[in-house]
Design brief:
Layout (H helix, E strand, L loop, with lengths): L8 E9 L8 E10 L2 E9 L8 H7 L3 H5 L4 H12 L3 E4 L2 H14 L8 E3 H8 L8 H8 L9 H21 L2 H8 L10 H7 L11 E4 L2 E4 L14 H7 L6 H13 L5 E5 L6 H12 L5 E5 L2 H19 L3 E3 L9 H9 L5 H14 L17 H7 L16 H11 L2 E5 H10 L8 E5 L4 H8 L2 E4 H14 L3 H20 L6 H18 L5 H6 L6 E8 L4 E8 L15 E6 L10 H4 L7 E5 L8 E6 L10 H16 L5 E4 L3 H13 L5 E2 L6 H9 L5 E4 L2 H4 L8 E6 L10 H12 L4 H19 L8 E6 L3 H4 L3 H11 L1 E5 L4 H13 L1
């Protein structure tokens, strides 16, 4: 920090206490005095509480009863502490607890502490807006603070002092125009935290950094462009060396296949097992052989898209100066006009005003405008929904020239490597036929594309929104006949809402749909665009669903076509397509190419040899009850019991669920038993809790959905996976019913030819997520013994045995078996 800057004196305080309750007694005090950007003085003392510590406090702090027995009473150190604090601003990480407890303790000794208070938690949330968490341990790791003895008062106070200095430095790095805008909302921060901003405002730089630009009172970061891409070597191994990566035989073989097929006119399907490094395996030979071609990579999920961007694709940009761009749907980006509108209005909600401040900071840092970069949205998600882009960039926009969605769209035209997700790829190529013209398209995990196509061909609308649209049009319409038709439309929409959750009412639903279509034809579809979209002529299958939140129940009208949408029909003939998949042949009678609309003449198939993983092993619990016979509560109890049993091994453990309802029930039971864990949905998004898990915040992660086939775990040397149920699709799912109909009509058996092999593949992929690097060791426990008891179980066992060793085991023996497995790997 610049020497000439003068600030108030700040006392950074941390207390350790006998508990976090109202009857807490201080057992340790740490104080660090800071002024003008420098640490002036430190103070620490133990305090005798005259009561025994709980085992939890002893374990947390490392403080012992014998240590405190020798310490002074608080009355003996109260004056000394008060003299340090009386003319300073009181600062703490979660200031409410420390300030209230210390002020009360001092008051009882005759000292009244009335100093201003500053909270470093909230200041960190504002000035470091993209961090995942804001506890002191995490901030110390991310911001490189010195926290060598966490949960001792002086160590925590010193780390908080360093954090406070980092916050001051960050404030002083911001342009004055941004800081002045932030200061308009700073009074909404807790206590007197705004003083820190106000005090430093005059010292903030007036002149903008060359990487920033100002539009109105918003300061934005300019995008980074590489001037000229570097040529890649023709040899794959040489390019790997430049990336500081080791040569892997299977990866080199995969790269050679890609290189050989680049000049083919056919669509190339390549099967390769997890963990061989497929991303570099296809990107390096393509960029080396045809550096002028645009390359589009489509991942199955946004999680994998972000994961690939942050690893392989970003490294390519750094080393070879390849212009790489991550492209998502418009709703992922901030619309600056909408944000500006929220700045112009007054909001009483303290959290909303804090969000305004952190977004102002974030805009000086982000090059993408992707709202997923901000991890604090859960507190008041509706505010961020308000900021989302609507896909339009009108000439009247104040920020037309710096619109993030427009910038993303334009970058997609000029970037050499574009990474997107399969769902958005489908939207983009329907809206913009030229997007893939003469490009190379790589569909990563292509086995997910059939379900993506189905989701893309569906529409869904909230029934309450449709009714609202009709009511608005009714009020605006002077025509009596039109109003009568709208009354009928509203009646049928409300009738559909009443049918939600009631079985055997499909005939009633179909009659209402028929009447709604007639009404829409008479009214004019342009007057009710949302209703027109869900009742479009291509849809001939309609159903009702609902989603429940803590506050309300949301009812939806869903529409789909009974006919398949084929991938082949959407792709320009000039596009070179590679479909990379963990499997190509779903069964002897069904393959992936067929489901995407291709004939044998359209495609080539290549299958990489698969090696058995020596460091993985699967255990099937042989003595557990049939899961179908268990009530939901007994099923949750059984899973919880096995998690507790496996937790004794002390290894990172991923627990895979098919249904979120079961996941939440188990999470509740673990909470009741005081077992630390991370649960998808309950503790954040899949991407967020994966990061927290890999950092070691908990050794247990409960996941569903993307964790089956969209999240890798490469940082763990040893890992446990508990599979709670075989991942069969729900037979009531509309896509399952559609594919069943399609297969029967073509003379194939849905279960044997499609669902069984696809479930086997999904299990195989889940196992592969914990085999992502050499010598990574994992143990997989299957809680579903249908593999041993059902006729189709042999197909599962045969597949598993091609991947790794498999053993049926009694529940009481599994811990010892895994111990022996990991012990072998540790030698």
């Amino acid at each position: 920090m610049v020497q000439e800057i003068r600030t108030k004196k700040y006392a950074i305080v941390d207390l350790e206490a006998t508990s976090a309750g109202v009857d807490a007694q201080i057992i340790q005090v740490g104080i660090v005095l800071v002024q003008d950007g420098r640490i002036l003085q430190t103070y620490e003392t133990d305090v005798n509480p005259h009561e025994k510590l709980t085992p939890h406090i002893k374990q947390l702090t490392g403080i012992t009863d014998s240590q405190l027995a020798k310490a002074p009473d608080f009355s003996q150190v109260a004056r000394e502490i008060y003299e340090l604090l009386k003319d300073a601003v009181f600062v703490a990480h979660n200031v409410k607890f420390d300030a209230n407890l210390l002020a009360e303790s001092l008051f009882l000794e005759g000292f009244e502490l009335r100093t201003p208070r500053v909270d470093t938690v909230e200041l960190s949330q504002v000035f470091f807006p993209t961090l995942d968490r804001y506890n002191l341990g995490y901030l110390a790791e991310e911001l490189e603070l010195n926290l060598t003895a966490a949960h001792t008062a002086i160590a925590d106070a010193m780390a908080t002092a360093q954090l406070f200095l980092k916050i001051q430095e960050k404030i002083l790095s911001l342009p004055q125009v941004t800081l002045a805008k932030i200061n308009q909302y700073a009074d909404h921060l807790v206590y007197e935290s705004s003083q820190v901003i106000t005090e430093l405002l005059p010292y903030a730089p007036v002149k903008l950094d060359e990487n920033l630009e100002r539009i109105m009172d918003l300061v934005l970061r300019k995008p980074t462009y590489y001037a000229k891409a570097r040529h890649l070597a023709k040899e794959f191994e040489h390019n790997l060396a430049l990336l500081d990566l080791e040569n892997r035989p299977q990866q080199a073989e995969f790269a050679n296949l890609v290189s050989e097929h680049l000049t083919d006119t056919q669509v190339n399907f390549i099967q390769g097992q997890a963990g061989i490094g497929k991303t570099y395996g296809y990107l390096l030979p393509i960029l080396a052989q045809d550096p002028q071609k645009k390359v589009v990579i489509a991942t199955p999920t946004k999680i994998l898209q972000d994961q690939m961007l942050q690893t392989e694709v970003r490294q390519l940009g750094k080393v070879f100066h390849i212009n790489c761009h991550s492209l998502k749907g418009y709703e992922n980006y901030i619309k600056l006009d909408r944000f500006w509108a929220t700045l112009e209005r007054e909001d009483d909600n303290r959290l909303v005003n804090r969000y305004k401040m952190l977004v102002l900071v974030w805009l000086t840092e982000t090059e993408t405008g992707d709202l997923d970069e901000i991890k604090q949205k859960n507190g008041y998600a509706s505010y961020f929904d308000e900021l989302r882009h609507d896909g339009q960039n009108l000439k009247t926009s104040l920020f037309r020239d710096v619109d993030f969605w427009q910038r993303s769209y334009d970058l997609a035209q000029v970037s050499q490597v574009i990474i997107t997700n399969q769902a958005y790829l489908l939207t983009r190529i329907v809206d913009d036929k030229s997007f893939l013209e003469d490009a190379i398209l790589i569909v990563d995990e292509a086995q997910k594309m059939p379900s993506q196509l189905e989701n893309f061909s569906r529409r869904r609308a909230r029934l309450t929104s449709l009714v609202s649209d009709v009511e608005v049009l009714y009020r605006q319409s002077p025509d009596l006949l039109t109003r009568r038709i709208l009354e009928n439309t509203s009646f049928h929409l409300e009738q559909l809402a009443d049918l939600v959750g009631k079985s055997g009412r499909q005939a009633q639903i179909d009659r209402s749909i028929l009447q709604l279509r007639q009404d829409l034809q008479e009214i004019g579809s342009h007057h009710l665009p949302r209703l027109a979209e869900v009742l479009a002529p291509q849809f001939d299958d309609f159903w009702l669903t609902q989603e429940s939140t803590e506050e309300k129940r949301i009812r939806f009208l869903n529409a789909a076509s009974l006919d398949f949408l084929f991938f082949k029909d959407l792709i320009p003939t000039s596009t070179k397509v590679f479909c990379i998949s963990a499997t190509l042949t779903i069964s002897r009678r069904v393959n992936l190419a067929q489901l995407l609309g291709y004939t044998e003449e359209d495609v080539t198939f290549d299958q990489m040899p698969q090696s058995k993983q020596e460091h993985q092993k699967v255990w099937i619990l042989s003595d557990i009850p049939e899961l179908q016979e268990l009530t939901p509560q007994r099923y949750a109890n059984l899973i919880t019991q096995e998690i507790v049993r496996l937790s004794r091994l002390g290894r990172p453990t991923l627990v895979l669920f098919n249904a979120n309802q079961n996941l939440q029930a188990v999470s509740t039971l673990l909470n009741e038993n005081g077992i630390n864990h991370l649960a998808q949905h309950g503790h954040g998004t899949a991407a967020n809790i994966r990061k927290r898990f890999e950092r070691g915040e908990s050794k247990i992660l409960l996941g569903s959905g993307a964790f089956w086939e969209g999240v890798d775990f490469a940082n763990q040397d040893q890992m446990l996976v508990l599979v709670t149920r075989l991942p069969f699709d729900n037979p009531q799912d509309k896509f399952v019913q559609k594919i069943n109909r399609y297969l029967r009509e073509s003379g194939r058996r849905p279960f044997e030819d499609y669902h069984l092999p696809l479930t086997i593949l999904k299990l195989k992929q889940a196992i592969g997520r914990t085999s992502r690097k050499p010598l990574q060791s994992s143990a997989i426990v299957l809680l579903d013994n249908r593999i041993l008891t059902k006729n189709y179980g042999k197909a599962f066992r045969d597949m598993l045995e091609t991947v790794c060793e498999v053993e049926a085991i009694r529940t009481k023996d599994v811990v010892q078996g895994i111990q022996e497995h990991f012990k072998i790997e540790e030698k």
